[in-house]
Write a structure and sequence with these properties.
507 residues; Immunoglobulin-like; single chain; Jelly Rolls; mainly beta; 4 domains
Amino acid sequence: MKELKTIFFILLNVSTLVSWAQINCTISVADSVEICEGESIQLLTSGTIYEFNWSKKSGLNDSTIPNPIASPASTTKYYVTNRYLFPTESIINGDFENGNTDFTSQYVQKCINGRMDWGAYCISKVSNIFWNGWGDCSDHTNGLGNMMVMDAAVAAGVGIWCETLPINQNTDYQFTTWVTSMVSLNPALLQFSINNKVLDQPFRAASEVCKWKEFYALWNSGSATSAEICVINQNTEDQGNDFALDDISFKSICVSTDSIVVQVHPQVSVELGGDKIVCEGDSILIDTKLPSNYIYNWSTPSGPNAKSIWVTKTGTYSVDVDNGLGCTDNDAITLTPIENPINTLEKDTTICFAFLPEFELHGGSALKYIWSTGDTSATISVADSGQYILTLYNGKNCSIIDTVNIENYCNPTFFYIPNSFTPNGDGINDVFTVKGEYLYIFKLSIFSRWGELLFETTNPEKEWDGNGPKGAAPTDIYVVLYEYEGLSPNTLHRIKERKHTHLSLIR
């Protein structure tokens, strides 16, 4: 029977070697790919896929598949790992179901209900019997089995659990264990060690009580043929730091890693501006406002690779822009012809600035107004005689220039009021009207002898026909009150008069 067992062991190792030879977990991915901002790309991995994972998940639609869609916001390096974990377990009694056997510990086994000292452990199915404040945790395997419960010592580097195993040379191994906290205060800080050399960084248990958390490390045996593997404590806190271990595993593994850089280039955005109304024949600049080293393809051959072009004809112009890194954009602009300006400038005229301090000049309709005075509005007011030049501008080839001459001259005032009239319908002297010229400011009122207002006007040319608010005024003497401003015929100085006289109305 002993001989049969030996033969079986040899066959098992041969089977394991054959399985190892049949496994090739090597994977590869391109070194780098390029996209533009806002775009996506599929990452293509080649090789036989086993346990697969992308370490950086940001920007990936699924980090567990070989060919995810990547949409990073900026240049990102993604690492990919492919693993095949061989089923043969090297650890004996890693789940502690055989009790306190097949491992060593620098802690002391002390299974006393109600109290567990620092640096003590117990292989147990329950956890809260050793301290009242500990959580009631079940083992990780199936919730019914054993686990290694301990009150950790305050010294760092102490081997909590150790086991020495024969190993294959130049082989990758995965070392894993599960740990849970008994109390939330100061969770355990543990580290793997093989042949007295620590692996990776320390790992900390979850602060949540009775929540199992897995930790693992990868190790290559190199020339070693045996391994003393340990879980060591690195937490020196004397409060809390109470935890349990379960399902310690040490298996050979096939691991392959690779990486790919997704380079994200700035997106191109070209804006030629809104459509414009322009003067046909004028030189118009259409500018992309982008770097000159970009690649430009205009719809017009006048500038096939320039960031801006000058055009003289109306129509629609478009451009395709490439930043040379595969990022493109396009835009178009339509130039519509504009009509010539409309000129409404006054003709040459004579103004008496003594009575009209300002005179308005009206330019008309245009995009731009350029007066010889420096004004740029459509309408201006002038207060001096002289020549005024206006340029109405809708473009270099759509402009009008006009001139108006303003002369300042004030005529002397001539003024005469008749003293009678006969509104009897005979066609002779039937109306009363002022005889005068160059009355610059004028007002006239006619009253009855009883003070009733019968007629009033500010127009010296307006006539009175002898009728009042109540009909035809009777034959009588009426009072005429008048006031005016003008120029004295003798001195040509401005005068202001307010007088009254009498008017005979005869029927």
